[in-house]
């Protein structure tokens, strides 16, 4: 007659298996939540960097910083969703870099 195969400790304790599964699911959910919460902040930082880069390019080519954000949108390829981001572009003088603030809505 054949002898039964010995069970491992993991197979003998189904409650422990469920506990490990629950811990893994909780860790995955926490990781996903933290990753998703930083996405809008990263988008705002990326948009701010793009606006400043385009303003620097305009100053290098034309000798002055653009007077408005519309100029960057029309001539320098800046694209963004105005419903998703509030962009404040302030110019002090033609030879001073603009102040740019981007806030997600």
Write the layout of secondary structure elements.
Layout: H1 9-12, H2 14-37, H3 39-62, H4 69-75, E1 85-90, E2 99-104
Antiparallel strand pairs: 1-2
Note down, in words, how this protein is organized.
The structure is a single chain. By secondary structure, the protein is mainly α. It has a domain of 66 residues. 56% of the residues lie in helices and 11% in strands. Strands 1-2 form a two-stranded antiparallel ribbon. Strand 1 and strand 2 form a beta hairpin. The longest helix is centred in the N-terminal third of the chain and has 24 residues. It is rod-shaped and about 95 Å long. The mean pLDDT is 82.
Strand order of the largest sheet: 1-2
Approximate shape: rod-shaped
Computed structural class: mainly alpha
Radius of gyration: 27 Å
Helix run count: 4
Mean pLDDT: 82
Q: H/E series, N to C?
A: HHHHEE
- Helical coverage, percent range: 55-70%
Strand percentage, roughly?
Answer: 5-15%
Number of strands: 2
Q: How far apart are the termini?
A: 72 Å
């Amino acid at each position: 007659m054949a002898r039964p195969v010995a069970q491992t400790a993991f197979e003998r304790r189904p409650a422990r298996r469920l506990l490990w599964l629950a811990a893994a699911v909780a860790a995955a959910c926490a990781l996903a939540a933290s990753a998703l919460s930083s996405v809008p902040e990263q988008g705002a930082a990326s948009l701010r960097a793009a606006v400043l880069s385009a303003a620097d390019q305009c100053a290098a080519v034309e000798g002055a910083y653009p007077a408005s954000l519309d100029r960057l949108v029309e001539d320098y390829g800046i694209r963004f969703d105005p419903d998703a981001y509030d962009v404040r572009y302030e110019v002090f003088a033609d030879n001073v870099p603009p102040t740019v603030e981007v806030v997600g809505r």
